[in-house]
Inverse folding.
C-alpha cells in the first residue's frame, strides 16, 4: 500500500475536495460520480486507503463486506431494487482504473449489455 493517499478520493475523504455524498459511516463513503455513465452512478469507497483488490489483504475482509453492504443500502435508497444494478470494480490501469483508491461503481437506471466492453 502507498503511504499517502494523494488521490482525488483521498482528498474527498479528508474534506479537501467537495463531493455529492449519498452515504457515510465510520468506514465507508459513497458519492455521485462526477461524470456519470448511467442515470444512477455512485461510487462506494472505504475511508481506509486501499489501492485496489490486489492491495486488500486478510485484515480487510470485514471492510470489503461493509463496502458491499453500503452498496446494497445505496442501491435500495436510489430505487434500484426492482430493475437491479450493476456493480463494477476496475482493478488496475490496464482495465480502466483511473483513480487508485479502491471503489465500487453502482450503475443503474438504464439497460446494460453483457459481456461488458
Ligand atoms: P475508475 O475509472 O478508476 O474505475 O473510476 C473512477 C471514477 O471516478 C470515474 O468514473 C470518474 O468519473 C470518477 N471521478 C474522477 N474524479 C472525480 C471527482 O473529483 N469527483 C467525483 N465525484 N468523481 C470523480
Amino acid at each position: 500500500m502507498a503511504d499517502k493517499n494523494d488521490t482525488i478520493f483521498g482528498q474527498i475523504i479528508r474534506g479537501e475536495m467537495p463531493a455529492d455524498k449519498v452515504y457515510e459511516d465510520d468506514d465507508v463513503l459513497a458519492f455521485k460520480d462526477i461524470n456519470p455513465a448511467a442515470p444512477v452512478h455512485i461510487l462506494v469507497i472505504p475511508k481506509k486507503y486501499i489501492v485496489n483488490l490486489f492491495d486488500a489483504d486478510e485484515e480487510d475482509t470485514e471492510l470489503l463486506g461493509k463496502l458491499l453492504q453500503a452498496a446494497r443500502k445505496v442501491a435500495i435508497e436510489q430505487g434500484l431494487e426492482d430493475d437491479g444494478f450493476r456493480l463494477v470494480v476496475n482493478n488496475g490501469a490496464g482495465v480502466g482504473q483511473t483513480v487508485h483508491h479502491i471503489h465500487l461503481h453502482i450503475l443503474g437506471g438504464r439497460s446494460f449489455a453483457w459481456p461488458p466492453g
The chain has a mean pLDDT of 96. The pocket of guanosine-5'-monophosphate is lined by residues 8, 19, 31-35, 43, 90, 96-99 (CB under 6 Å). The chain has two helices and five strands.
